Amino acid sequence: MGYTRARVAEVLDLAPSVKMYILELSRPFGSQPGQYVMVWLPGVGEFPVSVAGEKGGALRLVVARKGRATGYMHERVAEGGYVFVRGPLGRGFRLDARKALLVGGGYGAAPLLYLAERLSGAGATVHAVLGFRSREHALLVEDFRRVAGEVWVATEDGSEGFKGTAVDLFERVFPGGGYDAVYTCGKELMMEKVVRRAVEAGVRVQASLERIIKCGVGVCGACALEPLGLRVCSDGPVFDGETLLSLEDFGRYWRDHSGRRVPLPP
Ligand SMILES: Cc1cc2nc3c(=O)[nH]c(=O)nc-3n(C[C@H](O)[C@H](O)[C@H](O)COP(=O)(O)OP(=O)(O)OC[C@H]3O[C@@H](n4cnc5c(N)ncnc54)[C@H](O)[C@@H]3O)c2cc1C
Ligand code: FES
Which segments constitute the FAD-binding FR-type domain (predicted)? Predict the structure, then answer.
């Protein structure tokens, strides 16, 4: 799959170290919520980013500053500049819910916003639980309020909404909510708890995993999950709850840059 050169139409500061980039595509990607693109900054690096929205040739990406490539993007890629993107890649969320609860943490809220827009556009009832470190780090909350029926926010320091984690708030909201689907994206330890709880309750659940992605098309094995050998880049990044709970790696291991299996980073 080739690269598309995309013009940066707008850059918005969402939170400390998190920016939204709106890219003008020369051809629509036709992406689905949960799919991702590889962003290539020549001479710097390439990294995966979930699609946070696509409409009329404009692709929305939310990028948190982590290391070399995302740091360069934050500092040097401005409105009017260009980046290269390939995609859309991977398998996204199934969009067959009637009443869905979305549970997101940090920049994991970004792909869930795209999902919320699509589900509510298809007539589903959408509620969201969003967890952040503090009010300052909360992002996309107003965007969610425009498309979701209920939006509950948790902050670890209690500076906005419920004091606690997204999982704590999920535990309060989920029972008795009458949801037929749960969707989650964020820290894997958070997702593991959400997935386990939903599967126990017999509610369909899907989660978007993060791993080191190199090829993005299933050939290099950098993102393989034990023991099934599923590839996060092409079989996922979205998997259903039963599949996730059958994996040794979910919530425990990932692979470092050399492909070695190591404990999941916190
Ligand atoms: C499917 C998927 C969706 C993602 N969606 C988002 C998103 O919407 N917003 C966001 O901010 N982040 C997202 N990430 C995480 C993002 O890819 C990493 O934070 C980013 O690659 C870090 O790059 P870096 O160079 O700044 O950091 P460094 O730690 O310096 O990483 C060095 C290099 O490792 C390579 N790499 C490839 N995949 C990864 C990875 N998953 N994590 C770390 N390094 C990687 C890249 O070449 C990267 O430049 C997603 C990851 C995956 C797998
Ligand atoms: S990144 Fe190469 S197989 Fe997934």
Answer: 1-95
